[in-house]
Amino acid sequence: MKVIYNKYFPFGKFFATNICGIIFCRSDKGHLSEVTKNHEYIHTLQQREMLYVGFTLWYLIEWLWRYAKCRNFMKAYYDLYFEREAYKMERDLGYATRRKPFGWWHMFVRKGSLLHEIGEFLGTIANFVKRDFLWTKYLYVMCLIALVIVGQVVYNVYDIFIAPSYLDGTSMIRLPLIYITMYFLVLIPTLAMHSELWRLRRWQVWVFPVVLLTIDGAGQGFHAYAQWADDYSVWFKDKYYLDLVGAFLFRSVFIVGSLIVFHRLVEGRFGLYGLKRSSQYLRVYALIYVLLLPIFLAVSFTPQFLSYYPKMNITMYDGALGWNRWQVIGLFELCYANDFLGVESMFRGALVVGMARWLGRRAVLPMVMTYMCIHLGKPDLELCSSVVGGYLLGVLAWRTSHLWGGIIIHLGIAMFFEAVGIFRLLFG
After folding, report:
1. Residue 269: what pLDDT?
2. Interatomic CA distance for residues 147 and 344, integer angstroms
3. Which of 41-55, 290-304, 364-378 has the highest mean pLDDT?
4. Are strands 22-26 and 2-6 parallel, antiparallel or unpaired?
5. Beta-carbon neighbour count of residue 222 at 10 Å?
6. What's the longest Cα–Cα distance across the chain?
7. What angle do CA 34, 38, 44 make, to 5 degrees?
8. Quick check: bond before 10 cis, omega within 30?
9. Tens of pLDDT along 340-394?
10. Rounded CA gap, 196 and 248, in Å?
11. Cα–Cα distances in angstroms (integers) from residue 43 to residues 19, 138, 389, in the given order
12. DSSP 272
């Protein structure tokens, strides 16, 4: 723990302050005692477990909240959870060695409360990152992700390599090959970096991802139903509507079929790929979704969003199949929502919860890479956010062995975008 003595910082009555594990101390007020060093080291542990940025944001927000309640600067400071732990345990010089992660949370937040659940939620993510993190591994994966994003944003690889395959009939082959390649481009090198290549001796590590991603890619690439409509001389509006519905319906059929087949082989005590009764962190997921709604609303006004959503363009499909407007919307949104259930079951369920028994926490990053690839061709912001969202949801699926959080957030975002887009078309 590095200590920097100076005459000016920290300001006011404070003697020392801890910024990213570095102690700044006023030399004109003396030298650090062992008690003060222990106090500041507790702050260092707090910052590490919240990845520094999280600590800073929480510290500032909590102080503002407490100051608004008491209108007293120092009282708000002493009431902070971080400071209460540090002051309470500063004289126990052995505390840091036996301290549990998020000790401040466990000391002062009532168990069973939403705040306590938020702390456990953050602790789960931080603990996973701490145990899984290698600079070389994460740098390698981020470089791969950057290459894909640049390829899409700058060169539009989706329109060059993927979109034409739907027309020439190779999409059911090309998409699985892309997903499988990206999966193992992450899996094999990252296992090597952890000296865990022994995991590759298990046939399940090779067979299950290949089969699952083949089924998922083939389901996404399946496009024969478009020709069926031509064969039966279906009216053009009905044809385009059925084409749209089929894009999500048939992929769901492919995914559900694969999960049923592999249920007995892979699952067992985890339930059907994470679809089990569990309420762990559901309140936190719901809170995150509510807090993100303003961001989703702002995104819904961007040009890329307006050109891509809603998927159900009612002005184009109104009157299809001889149905009224809301029947047309209802059938599509049902199939669209079902597709998201299939995606969560495949990526967070089969590829994380299912593969965890052979790969442990190493199952998360390969899933993130392939999950990002299914977003090629979508708005750039959605492509980039799929990396962060896929990682966090993958970590939590691995830890909780359920994927309800992913369903809440993923499906909630999609339905929100659809609702905003349809409202704009009908009433804008």
Report:
1. 45
2. 25
3. 364-378
4. parallel
5. 19
6. 89
7. 145
8. yes
9. 888 888 888 888 988 888 999 999 999 999 999 999 988 888 899 899 989 999 9
10. 38
11. 9, 26, 29
12. B
